[in-house]
Write a structure and sequence with these properties.
Blueprint lengths: L15 H7 L14 E5 L25 H13 L4 E6 L5 H16 L4 E7 L11 H14 L8 E2 L2 E7 L7 H11 L6 E5 L18 E2 L10 H19 L6 E4 L3 E2 L4 E2 L5 H13 L3 E4 L21 H25 L10 E3 L4 E3 L1 H9 L2 H5 L7 E2 L6 E4 L4 E7 L2 E6 L2 H8 L16 E4 L4 E4 H9 L2 H5 L7 E4 L5 E6 L4 E5 L2 E4 L2 H5 L34 E2 L9 E4 L3 E2 L4 E7 L6 E7 L5 E3 L4 E2 L6 E6 L7 E9 L5 E8 L2
Parallel strand pairs: 1-2, 1-11, 2-3, 3-5, 5-6, 6-7, 8-11, 26-33
Antiparallel strand pairs: 4-5, 9-10, 12-13, 14-15, 15-16, 16-17, 18-19, 20-21, 20-24, 21-22, 22-23, 25-27, 27-31, 28-29, 28-30, 28-32, 32-33
Helix pairs in contact: 6-7, 7-8
């Protein structure tokens, strides 16, 4: 959930108490401190599917649309230690759409620390509407409007996660790059691809040009799970080395497999255990379990069944615990949580923080103050992934281990900044690269002039990433208009004829960790970033003159369904900067009720408010309406009240 500092005019009634209640840790996106375990989940079964003579059947039998069965599965998944159910989905008009939405809602209402994501299945003969560009655009738009920002949706790397099966059926990776430039130009979502076609498994790695991660759907065709995951790891490592990227490793675990063409015996649970052992050996960023309940055709289920009882659910609980325990120990060893000395740390009086170790060496060797600025936090362990990180004025350092060798990566501050401030820039038509202009199909943007020269001379993709915009004009806090360009890891700025790296680190560093330290008070231990400490400090940032506030305003309430009297949040974009915004409810009976206060759009046309219905309010279809007093732009954000 995004929290943006707002300025309200004197005299307006501000409901900060409501916002404070809304932003309690229980309402925030879950941050996994170890690899999330995500199980594929199917909702297409009816009682007619469970005929006699099947290889095995669930126990008890059920219809996927039955609420009691769905809640039982949620309870079982949570009890087994799963972090998410990835709901196999076949488009907005499919029966799975309503059921996956209901699954997400029930998970959110369960109180479990668990999430739901959607997997768009492009398998042959299943969802042909998803094999057209308009169909895919509509599908992503539907999920973005209805699911991504509702309670219970899974985030990876801080972004709504969207899974895709068999992307090759839509087209080559270039087709996906074009699609993403249209539906997710700022890369504010986390796209993960896989394929069920064994012949395409090796070719899937090339789709990392358009996706954030890929994973193998099936590890049972290799002689052992270790062999399958080692081959995947080698392909991923080769891609990252050749592209200067750090795409994450997402591995697959399976209990076995059986269809007409291929079988892998479960061996009484031994194969399942070997699959988890192989996953643990890879030290992955995340794990996909294939599957929770795929009975028909592939028989990869761990759900209790007539043949196996609860064996595989019980094994899952044990093996999930083993993986997470191993991952936690590895994280502590890598980051030196317990025994790292502060003796090598040097005090930086300009910002009141310390610098040393691997980060200090990297800083000195790769540009120092000019490239990175001074440190503005101490080193600390980020709870979302267990990495040791440190913010600088212009960058974020992240430590990872390659065998016994510590390596420093630069965080994707450019992407995170655009996502945080809801900025996006459309790609440009492809052009042939020349000495004067370079075009990057990876993001659909180009680079030219002084910014191109600086980018090429100071590390290129490895240091800055690919461009996420063309050159744009921005007004800075000192009143000057300057040309800037965004990249995955930075913002380059033209100050006259001098290129400088923008201070995105200052814009995004968590407030809790930017507190000034005295030289005689070095950090005594590494701190875990806790809920409530993850927001950037309020700061005076640039205003993009090239981002016109044209067209309709857009927005949404945080929770599509709530009980009468519950606290809700509402955010909207594309109002005129600094205009007053009136707010009122549309009630189910057609009447309206104004909120007792107005909001003010900030300099980016953004509005954030908290609100609360009454406990006596009737259930039904409601909406919150926000209307700009000077622009007349209006947002109607529907939600449902129900007991």
């Amino acid at each position: 959930m995004r929290r943006t500092s707002l300025m309200y005019r004197a005299g307006l009634v501000v409901v900060w108490a409501l916002l404070a209640a809304l932003l309690l840790p229980g309402h925030q996106t879950t941050a996994f401190s170890e690899p999330p375990i995500m199980a594929l989940y199917y909702t297409s079964y009816g009682m007619s599917n469970w005929a006699e003579g099947l290889l095995d059947r669930p126990s008890p039998l059920y219809d996927s649309g039955d609420d009691e069965a769905m809640q039982r599965h949620i309870n079982q998944a949570n009890g087994a230690g799963l972090d998410a159910l990835v709901c196999v989905w076949r488009g907005p008009d499919s029966i799975e759409h309503e059921r996956c939405r209901r699954l997400q809602r029930r998970v959110a209402e369960s109180g479990y620390d668990m999430r739901v994501a959607f997997l768009a299945d492009l398998s042959e003969g299943i969802a042909e509407v998803l094999l057209t560009a308009p169909g895919l655009q509509d599908a992503v738009k539907t999920l973005e409007e209805k699911q991504f920002y509702d309670a219970g949706y899974l985030r990876l790397d801080g972004k709504p996660a969207l899974f895709w099966a068999n992307p090759e059926r839509f087209g080559p990776v270039e087709a996906w790059q074009q699609l993403r430039s249209q539906v997710d130009p700022s890369f504010s979502q986390f796209w993960v691809a896989t394929t069920t076609n064994p012949a395409f498994e090796e070719g899937l790695i090339a789709y990392l040009d358009g996706f954030d991660a890929v994973f193998p759907a099936d590890v049972t065709r290799a002689s052992t799970p270790s062999e399958a995951l080692a081959a995947y790891a080698a392909r991923l490592q080769g891609y990252n080395q050749s592209h200067g990227t750090t795409k994450p490793s997402i591995v697959t675990v399976m209990p076995g497999y059986s269809d007409a063409q291929h079988q892998r015996d479960r061996e009484g649970g031994a194969y399942y255990q070997s699959s988890w052992d192989a996953a643990i050996q890879q030290q992955p960023a995340a794990v996909v379990l294939n599957s929770f309940n795929h009975f028909i055709l592939e028989h990869t289920y761990i759900e209790p069944s007539e043949q196996y009882g609860s064996l595989y659910l019980d094994l899952t609980r044990e093996l999930v615990g083993k993986l997470k325990s191993t991952a936690s120990q590895a994280s502590n060893e890598v980051n030196g949580v317990d025994d790292r000395s502060t003796a090598s740390l040097a005090y930086v009086p300009e910002t009141g923080h310390f610098l040393g170790g691997s980060f200090g060496y990297y800083w000195e060797q790769n540009g120092g103050v000019e490239r990175f600025g001074y440190p503005i936090t101490e080193e600390y362990i980020r709870s979302s992934d267990g990495k040791l990180v440190q913010y600088f004025e212009r960058a974020r350092f992240e430590l990872r281990m390659d065998g016994d060798q510590p390596l420093v990566d630069l965080g994707l501050l450019g992407r995170e900044y655009l996502d945080y401030y809801r900025l996006s820039f459309e790609g440009v038509p492809p052009v042939e690269s020349t000495d004067d202009r370079a075009y990057f199909p990876e993001t659909g943007h180009s680079l030219r002039g002084l910014l191109k020269e600086y980018w090429e001379e100071h590390g290129g993709v490895a240091f800055f990433g690919y461009p996420l915009s063309e050159e744009v004009t921005a007004k800075f806090p000192d009143g000057a208009d300057r040309t800037v360009q965004y990249f995955e890891r930075a913002r380059l700025e033209l100050h006259g004829n001098t290129v400088m790296v923008g201070t995105l680190g200052r814009s995004l560093a968590p407030c809790h960790h930017t507190q000034f330290r005295l030289a005689e008070q070095p950090p005594s231990a590494y701190e875990h970033l806790t809920e409530g400490d993850t927001e950037p400090c309020p700061s005076s940032e640039v205003v993009h003159l090239d981002q016109p506030y044209a067209g309709a305003a857009t927005g949404h309430v945080y929770y599509a369904a709530a009980r009468p009297g519950e606290v809700q949040g509402f955010e909207a974009w594309n109002f005129v900067p600094d205009e007053l915004v009136s707010l009122w409810f549309n009630l189910p009976d057609g009447s309206t009720r104004p909120l007792p206060y107005k909001a003010i759009a900030n300099q980016r046309g953004y509005v954030l408010v908290g609100f609360q219905t009454r406990e006596s309010d009737p259930p039904g279809a409601w909406s919150l309406v926000a209307e700009g007093n000077s622009s007349g732009r209006r947002v109607i954000a529907p939600f449902e009240l129900r007991w």
